[in-house]
Description:
By secondary structure, this protein is an alpha/beta fold. It has helices spanning 2-8, 17-22, 37-40, 76-83, 106-115, 131-140, 150-159, 179-188, and strands at residues 12-15, 30-33, 56-62, 70-75, 95-98, 120-123, 145-149, 169-173, 193-198, 208-212, 226-227. The protein contains eight helices and eleven strands.
Amino acid sequence: MEWILSDAGARVLLTDAVTEGRGLPAGCAEVVTVGDAGVAVLDGGDLEVVSLPGQLAYVMYTSGSTGEPKGVAVTHQDVLELCSDSMFTPGAHDRVLMLAPYAFDPSTYEVWRPLLHGGCVVTAAEDDLSVAALAQVLAEERITGLQVTAGLFRVMAEEDPACFAGIREVITGGDVISPTAVRRVLEHCPGTVVRGAYGPTETTLFASQSPFRRAAEVPAPLPIGRPLDGMHAYILDEHLTPCPPERPENSTWQAPDSPAATGNAPP
Length: 267
């Protein structure tokens, strides 16, 4: 945390009493504690700060390919484009269960997709996240849209696949998705759509997705799907060169910018 504060150049650290009691990292100029008496009396009116689409909404640190955390800058426009993508069936995400910590990018979907479309966010209790407890919340709160990691989805599919009944769309990803788990859920919940989603934090949670509606149509392994609106997916070879739509086993095709390439190459 000290490294992130230093790397981000943070001037203010927003925290709560419990976290503050555990000890805060050094190196922050000012600490603001939620619930503090001094904060409670501050003016809660409009600050009249202009916020443009290209300005930062948040910076989220992810592990990065080098093993050293790196900050990913996400703009207001990035969040709006995710939440307005056509992958979300209208009405299917009116009541969304928030399972992810707000510092984990699935929370971007869990908070802003329903709220930006007149829906409702239901927060899960932190003390009990067992499959039985989650199944009870899903039913009692009439959840219509849900995002769970591939690991949790597999466990829920194994222990109680019918717990997704009544949910219109379940999104899962973040790791290899079990085709068996997807088939099992669809067999027990014929009215539910399971979407396999793929994408790093840099793409604002998702880059591509593939919907599955019937157990018999679920392949193995699952594809990463097609890109979201406004995104493009490219298939590259070992040299990061775009591949043609089909390359025969003994093809001599080369990329257009290759020194040996002549004539018109496939797109």
